[in-house]
Amino acid sequence: MSQDKSLPDLAAVRKEIDAIDQQLQLLINQRAACAQKVAQVKIAEEGENAFFYRPEREAQVLRNIMERNQGPLSNEEIARLFREIMSACLALERPVKVAYLGPEGTFTQQATIKHFGHSAVCVPMAAIDEVFREVEAGSADYGVVPIENSTEGVISHTLDSFMDSGLKISGEVVLRIHQHLLVGENTRPEKISTIYSHASSLAQCRKWLDAHYPGIERVPMPSNAEAARKVKGEWHSAAIAGDMAAELYNLKRLAENIEDTPDNSTRFLIIGRQTVPASGDDKTSLMVSMRNQPGALHQILEPFNRHNIDMTRIESRPSRSGAWNYVFFIDFSGHVDDARVQPVLKEIGERAADMKVLGSYPRGVL
Amino acid sequence: MSQDKSLPDLAAVRKEIDAIDQQLQLLINQRAACAQKVAQVKIAEEGENAFFYRPEREAQVLRNIMERNQGPLSNEEIARLFREIMSACLALERPVKVAYLGPEGTFTQQATIKHFGHSAVCVPMAAIDEVFREVEAGSADYGVVPIENSTEGVISHTLDSFMDSGLKISGEVVLRIHQHLLVGENTRPEKISTIYSHASSLAQCRKWLDAHYPGIERVPMPSNAEAARKVKGEWHSAAIAGDMAAELYNLKRLAENIEDTPDNSTRFLIIGRQTVPASGDDKTSLMVSMRNQPGALHQILEPFNRHNIDMTRIESRPSRSGAWNYVFFIDFSGHVDDARVQPVLKEIGERAADMKVLGSYPRGVL
Q1: Among the four residues A2, A186, A283, A313, which has the most C-beta atoms within 10 Å?
Q2: What is the ipTM of this complex?
Q3: Which domains does chain B have, with CATH numbers?
Q4: Pairing verdict, β B97-101 and B121-125
Q5: Alphabetically, which GO biological process terms does the record hold (chains A, B) (predicted)?
């Protein structure tokens, strides 16, 4: 056993860890001292209200880290640690204040922490427009709101809030969500009579359930975790939940990744008062108002196609003003400062009744 | 401005940060590789169910880090970052599963994360005895439960749970809690007619309020944060809340640290199935059953005094069995393996009807 010559010597490894920790500590504090120098320059140049948080710079740092990562820590884990280190360095000058759509414990909170780290001061708001108001009033530096979520219909609230707001999008966060069909040890697939999960998870797997468990009762639960816990001791029921719940309750995975859309993820926007310089891999969101006339949509889409700009999303919303029948929300790859993007914006600006750039921001890292 | 020769050059500082980040990344991954080697040895020696998490070792690492810390990051912040790094390294082998007294967003969750970092899998339980059961059944590696909390009366539940359990205490976490009296910009102290806060915060500041704001209405709110938010726009009310809420809502501090006990903190216990070797600065918790006879308490306390062992806490609970009238819970400084502790335990063991060592564990770091 411990006499095995091929095994490393525990005391020696621990000594190595201690030496590494000493170096790590010195370097982290050196990094913090550098951040203080940056803050000093910014205050001298921009005054006390200078923006210390630079989304494009942070995105670049994280991309570099993931590109050169050799492991054994995964890209996701090493990026998470660097977010925390950056977050701590930034908070040394002044903690970033972030308002998010609450309550606590939601995916939006998870996205907020993923993006800003734990040294940021995060506060839950009861509604999307409250998040906007907090940031507009300067009570929070940034806001985090969901923009694409398959079941909650929050997209429209967030889009509508942009109509009345001067806020800019300064970033996006994407959370991947995988669902599994989980059962207790003694459950046989053919005996399943009930499937438990949160309503939105049941909705995300609707087609899969229709195909594989037609006619089986689906019961909504307050959370996926509670669904998993419930089926642990039962032999005639299954739960839909993610990796964490499966591990925690030692459940068997009857089927993995059963969500209907192969890339099931929820997307969030970071909103703020600042415009973000190009990071090298950016997206831009536009809001365009058009009269409801034949060919209106084509008039907007055509320049993107002609200039070979990759449009990633388009949504339309009825206008609130009544004067223009539709408002289009368009996402495309590129930054407003890119030479190839500017002619497109110019052309659309000439054709549309109104056009507003909601923001150019780094594409979500991971 | 930017021409100022005394200011650092931003581009140069950023280059320096990039170089630091490269080294940091290499070192963190080297540390992770070391952790894998440790795990390899442990599996060879102790089998697949080996304990990778070593509370005494982690406490030593954090103490060293805080002792040699030169800043600019605070001891608390650098310790937090190292907890995260250790947590990530540990999770590489197998994530630690921790059951805690829920719901999410409570101080117990904060304590759990403070102790285990974000790479641990944490699950909220509805009651203290459920936390015990999860750990006993092996569904969770550790549990986190509050043990001293001025208002909720949870001590007795936790103590009672130990009576029926074979679990060991493997650590403690202390969270400091400071309360301030906060008002909006235009509020004058003499105009305050209502004070809002969470019920337990109102209770924590009762004496101070009686002395300084007698007869003023105290209104309980769902949380301190909501209390702070409520008073922001009012001119005749105040809130009791902590630093985070004060900063977030830009409230004025009429009075700071108004909690009645100068060291207002909540203490939590980590419970597990393993005994923890000495870390160099440890505490031990004992459970002692005594017949209710004159001098019983003195018989227990006397050996501590004579052997010069520092007793930090004593609680008595009525016994459930009925056979013995009282059960005493005693905390003292030292580890069961210390030469000076062993004669004390021997003497108490001879005098008591029953004695159980609940655990020796590292004193809470920070």
Answers
A1: A283
A2: 0.70
A3: 11-94 (1.20.59.10), 96-176+264-274 (3.40.190.10), 180-255 (3.40.190.10), 275-362 (3.30.70.260)
A4: parallel
A5: chorismate metabolic process; L-phenylalanine biosynthetic process
